[in-house]
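ok posting inputs for the MIG job
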Amino acid sequence: GTYGIFFDNTYYSHFDFGKTNADQYSFGAVDGDLNYYFIYGPSPIEVLTKFSKLVGTIPLPPRWSIGYQQSRWSYYPESKVRELAGTFRQKKIPCDAIYLDIHYMDGYRCFTWDTSRFPNPKKMISDLSSDGFKVVTIIDPGIKNDATYWVYQSGIKGNHFVKYPDGEYFIGTVWPGNCVFPDFTRGDTRQWWGSLYQILIESGVKGFWNDMNEPSVFDSPNKTFDLTVIHDGEGYKSDHREYHNIYGMQMVRGTYEGVLKIKPNERPFVLTRANYAGGNRYSATWTGDNISSWEHLEMAIPMCLSLSISGQSFVGTDIGGFVGNPSGELYTRWLQLGVFLPLMRTHTEINSKDQEPWSYGAKYEEINKKFIELRYQLLPYLYTQFYKASVNGTPIIRPIFFDYPDEEDNYLNDNEFLFGEALLVAPVLGEGENKRDVKFPTGDWYNYWTGEKYTKTKYLRFDSPIENIPLFAKAGSIIPTQQIVQSTDEAPIDPLTIKIFPSDKSSTILYEDDGNSFEYKNGYYCLRKISLETKLRFNKIFFENPVGKYRPNDRTIMIELYDSFKPNSIKINNSEIIDNKDKWYYHDRDRMLTIKFIDTFEKILIEIKE
Ligand code: MIG
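and the output
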């Protein structure tokens, strides 16, 4: 069996997994209540779904935020941003979001624009938006201690900044110099904070990146607030020792709720560096400042998996590494991993070399493009995983043991993982490596690239030159994929391809909606069960009537059935199409059958006989 413990104590806490005494795990905190929840599974997934009932699930994100995102510290001025966007489109490398780091602000003052670098943000953002880009801006908690600055003035007036017990403001140095800091544990302050986003939203900004919210302070001895600083806590007034660990979560809560209030029918996208259990309701999380090294590439997997199975399932890592400069090889290997992380964002520090998909020469550019395209092909599948995560807290990426709890020899496997329930990813993590050993979880697996089937195989070594990484589909998986688009704004292109890697009997769901509004809460979604039944020489594929009132545009569906025989009869809703060569094709070499038909959004039964 499996159990989870949620230690709901916000003080400085510790977890000892057998270090002091190999026979004992222990946890504790310097103060506060010994308040913990014991969550019995029995399976790992059930531990997490039960934990999610307690603290909440991630909301369904706007669809654009699961596309590819490009960031650096910092893209400026406007001409640079336009050039960046233009290069993506000219090279036909898909991208949905461009980030503006701290240089877009006037002297690092939050909720302002540096008008010499960005003279007309609204015009720039609207041009970018007609080209399919969303703009995400950074916002830090530190508010410049500057009596002429409107946010400072209004914060002082509303009593929004944290103070020492004697009533003096706590002042700490961050980017703008001396700063005061909002008390996000106070409801009025969160509301005030949320309302400040109006100015960015008016300019067209769609995503909000909350950084430095541990909170981080440059000059103080402990790199954070003085521990005696008082927080309101809505009736539970206490010092920073108690509230430090939820400061980040309360910040993104204020951000999310504020943005939602301003645009009530758009799903907010918020990204945070600090969070707490339950903060997943407001924000995606990234793993902070990593280093452009092979070790940090390797570490990204257990870090993201740990966050993911702790409820922060919208998670990612700076692709290519933040500190330093990756080689072309390292960048490409990182991007190949990034395709399979829920948040897919390249980011790098100030003064580093260019870190774009095309920054390492033609050979790497072509590979990077192919992998970003793969991300877009997988979007229907990935979006459905997000849907499931939002409904019941199932993680999008999982360690192997999570889905295979009986396989003890996989408990420590942290170099392979599952992307949704169907795909096994084995990224290449070492310099110069062009072979990859893969350890398969129990069951049969298919090579995603070739359709080759591995039956009852435990270990295999694969060629994995820089052009590729091993990727497998579980037998029985039905994976909806789409054609390549340059951004999620583009209307999907025909066909919608459903890849089927058969086992005797299996089924999946495909979830679709408008990708941006809350209309799905009023029933405007399209949820469809797709199933497969394989008998000797006879396959049945069944699309159930969709549930929900939303319908995607008219489209063609293409089935790709792997491990198939050459059929002598194919019936779609009882009418034979075997003589209609436009509608199907059998690929002898890889034993794959493709069938094309118009999606009627009604019951569709396909019967295939040898
Ligand atoms: O002191 O905004 O983790 O992603 O580029 C550094 C500048 C502050 C830290 C973030 C990083 C971001 C950087 N920030």
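notes: The pocket of MIG is lined by residues 73, 101-102, 138, 211-212, 273, 288-289, 347 (CB under 6 Å). The radius of gyration is 25 Å.
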